[in-house]
Amino acid sequence: MKHAGQTAEEAFKEGFCVFAFGTFDPSRLPYLNRKWCSGKAGRCGVVFPREKKKSFSCQQQLNTYKTMSLWVDKYRPTSLGKLDYHKEQATQMKNLVQCGDFPHLLVYGPSGAGKKTRIMCLLRELYGAGVEKLRIDHQTIVAPSKKKIEISTIASNYHLEVNASDAGNQDRVVIQELIKTVAQSQQVQASAQRDFKTVLLTDVDRLTKDAQHALRRTMEKYMSTCRLILCSTSTSKVIGPIRSRCLAVRIPLPSTEEVCSVLTSVCKKEGLLLPPELAKQISDKSGRNLRKALLMCEACRVQQYPFSVDQDVPETDWEVYLRETANAIVSQQTPQRLLEVRSRLYELLTHCIPPDIIMKGLVKELLDNCDGQLKAEVSHMAAYYEHRLQLGNKAIYHLEAFTAKFMAIYKKFMEDGLDAMMF
To answer: Which residues form the AAA+ ATPase domain (predicted)?
Structure first.
């Protein structure tokens, strides 16, 4: 078993087989000790011992991985017809594939809504089962400045998946080089269903503006031999020219009833009986994030079975830690307390919790402790520092600045209220 913070490359060099799940989601962290999380790349996956004589993309080892995988991966639908919710949208996507004129796609929606699952189902509809035979490649790209950029990609014979934002400020070079390479390569099988390959770019909203403008030019140039599927949580940070060149597909979160239905179905396949009340509680605590809900449900199974209606649903460690941090901010506003909070925020960052997730969680907890008159000012202040957080490179500076500003405002508010009571 490998520890958090280890990169996929390090795990592979030590004789472990690595299969990536996709973009890092902190809700996965406490439920799996086989997980590696790369602080630099922000990717996550599963590692397990591999046979030295075989390739790490071996189908036999992939089958072994499936038998030991989490429910969220074990019961992931593999075709559009097997999706449990948004079935009308799935039918429209299937018709889009069958019509032949397949455009660039921009798939967006909140985390845990099922974007990646639907994209993989769409690729299977396009190319068949061969798209599931994945391999992990580590490529070195030389920038015009002669700087070497190392990037990890997940690929099949028909598509390539990459998170170009992993390359930081060099994401423009990565995008141009990878798309050019894919577009100029021929299909391995002459009898392939399509005469184009597909590039899946995740976290497009995290790309720099230079990279997005380069992507706009590149997607026009190689349209005949390459299609792009862009995946993001929001379109607000994607430039207009890219949005106008793609067919936008929004994947909303499933409803509470749909989440409960999926949880009940998965438990039934596992031979378990899930009380409707507990399913509703899990759905509410997960915020209708289906991935998080399935992880919580599996954690409940490990914690206690048979299930009980009043059973506690375990929370992720980082959420509890963030709540304690918010309580520490509200309880005392001093330079010493600010220093303590800074160390706690830095602890979250070193454990690969994304800074924007920390900011959103911290604001939510602080607003719960604020008076109604203060909430509007805190929300405005949070938006200001969140914007600066996106522009800067040192997240701890902006998180600490937000904390210090909140402490100043909150302390003044409390002192003014105390003075009003005295006089």
So the answer is: 101-257
Cα separation, 254 vs 138, whole angstroms: 35
Which residues on neighbouring strands pair with residue 250, listed in sequence order?
A: 108
Q: Which residues on neighbouring strands pair with residue 161, listed in sequence order? A: 154, 200
Q: How far apart are CA 269 and CA 23, in angstroms?
A: 27
* Rounded-to-integer distance, Cα 258 and Cα 85, Å: 7
Is the pLDDT at 186 greater than 50, yes or no?
yes
Question: Which tens digits make up the pLDDT trace of 241-284?
Answer: 899 988 899 999 999 999 999 999 999 988 889 999 999 999 99
Centre a 10 Å sphere on the Cβ of residue 257 and count the other Cβ atoms it contains: 12
How far apart CA 290 and CA 116 sit, in angstroms, is 12
User: CA distances (Å), 13 to each of 4, 10, 23, 410, in order?
Assistant: 16, 5, 22, 51
Q: Which two tokens stand for residue 290?
A: 């289906």
- Contact (CB, 8 A) for 266 and 294: yes
The tens digit of pLDDT for each residue in 312-362 reads 888 888 999 999 999 999 998 999 999 999 999 999 999 989 898 999 999
Give the residue carrying structure tokens 């990646």.
116
d(CA 111, CA 122): 19
Q: Which CA distances in Å does 382 have to 210, 294, 364?
A: 26, 31, 10
- For residue 105, the cross-strand partners are 229, 247
Using the predicted structure, report yes or no on whether residue 143 has a pLDDT greater than 90. no
pTM above 0.85? no
DSSP helix/strand/coil, 85? coil
Residues 287/298, Cβ–Cβ less than 8 Å:
no
What does the alpha-carbon distance between residue 77 and residue 254 come to, in Å, rounded to a whole number?
Answer: 15
The H or E element spanning position 280 is: helix 276-286
Sheet of 226-232: strand order equals: 135-142, 148-155, 159-162, 197-201, 226-232, 105-108, 247-250
Count CB neighbours of 17 within 10 A: 23
**pLDDT at position 5:** 43
